[in-house]
Design goal:
Elements (H helix, E strand, L loop, with lengths): L3 E10 L2 E10 L5 E5 L6 H8 L7 E6 L2 E2 L5 H5 L2 E4 L11 H7 L13 H13 L15 H14 L4 E5 L7 H18 L2 E5 L3 H7 L2 E6 L2 E6 L1 H4 L2 H8 L1 E7 L6 E8 L3
Parallel strand pairs: 3-8, 3-9, 6-7, 7-8
Antiparallel strand pairs: 1-2, 1-4, 4-5, 9-10, 11-12
Helix pairs in contact: 3-5, 4-5, 5-6
The protein binds adenosine-5'-triphosphate.
Adenosine-5'-triphosphate binds next to helix 1.
GO cellular component, one term: plasma membrane
Pfam families: ABC_tran
GO molecular function: ATP binding; ATP hydrolysis activity
């Protein structure tokens, strides 16, 4: 199992430092949620860990070597990233999209092997997309589309799955559906998942570890019980509210009340 961590990570855009000196170790076989207000640097952090953005100083290490010294194909065999608004030609079928997930593993001749077909079938099965595999992306609902993209990322068969706001734009039912798929993937396949999530209750529902980013720094990190705290959430999001208890399993939930101006 590969190991990913970052040391003294700084990111600069147009001479402005966005992320300042971050040290993070990704917990293997766990779900980590990155939370924080708009513009705090969550997506930038996710993209840097996934080798898409180059740090201005510090490094992301994959098995002890800077991730930026691996080829993109080597990295793609280990991690798959689903960006915030992925795009593909709308006439693509689900199957065709998912096939692209096999790209880093395909032979020089680019033809799909029985192993590729097996991985594609598995990814469609896990995301409950088998019946929709011949449908065009243009004919899918938002929730189905998101599942198709998750299937594509899964077909890569990496140990790590990085997702940027996978539940955004989905209605409540589809949000829960996607969270359940991710939770199952982690619990049954031991996938290590790192996801940017806006809804703190979603993070609390499935994450083993929550990292709160504020102004490009780690404000705090911990498990659900440690982070689901009225003062901490006010600090992260600038919102006052109440921690209430889910009467089914007593897990904490945050109920927002008002904007905090402190
Ligand atoms: N390519 C870019 N060039 C210049 N500045 C950028 C670029 N991408 C992001 N930024 C800036 O970096 C900061 C962090 O952005 P980022 O998208 O990482 O935040 P975020 O926490 O993911 O926000 P959101 O929750 O709104 O998606 C913001 O101020 C943003 O404007």
């Amino acid at each position: 199992m590969s190991e990913i961590y970052c040391e003294n990570l700084c990111i600069t855009y147009s001479q402005k430092e966005i992320l300042h000196n971050l040290n993070i170790k990704i917990r293997k076989n766990k779900i980590t949620a990155l939370v924080g207000s708009n513009g705090s640097g969550k997506s930038t952090l996710l993209k840097t860990i996934a080798r898409i953005v180059m740090p201005s100083s510090g490094s992301v290490y994959l098995d002890g070597k800077s991730i930026h010294r691996y080829s993109s194909q080597e990295v793609a065999k280990i991690l798959a990233i689903l960006p915030q608004s992925p795009e593909a030609p709308q006439e693509f079928t689900v199957e065709r999209l998912v096939q692209y997930g096999r790209f880093p593993r395909q032979s020089f001749f680019g033809s799909l092997s029985p192993k590729d077909y097996k991985a594609i079938d598995w990814a469609l099965e896990v995301t409950d997309m088998q019946d929709l595999r011949k449908k065009r992306l243009s004919d899918l609902s938002g929730g189905q589309k998101q599942r198709a993209w998750i299937a594509m990322a899964l077909a890569q068969e990496g140990e790590y799955l990085f997702l940027d706001e996978p539940t955004t734009y989905l209605d409540m039912r589809h949000q829960i559906e996607v969270l359940n798929i991710l939770e199952n993937l982690n619990r049954t396949q031991k996938k290590t998942i790192v996801m940017v999530v806006h809804d703190i209750n979603h993070a609390a529902k499935i994450a083993d570890h929550i990292i709160a980013i504020k102004n490009g720094r780690i404000l705090t990190e911990g498990n659900t019980k440690q982070i689901l705290d009225e003062k901490i959430i006010e600090d992260i999001f600038g919102v006052k509210g109440l921690i209430i208890s889910n009467r089914i399993d007593n897990t904490p939930l945050f109920f927002p009340l008002e904007v905090s101006y402190v």
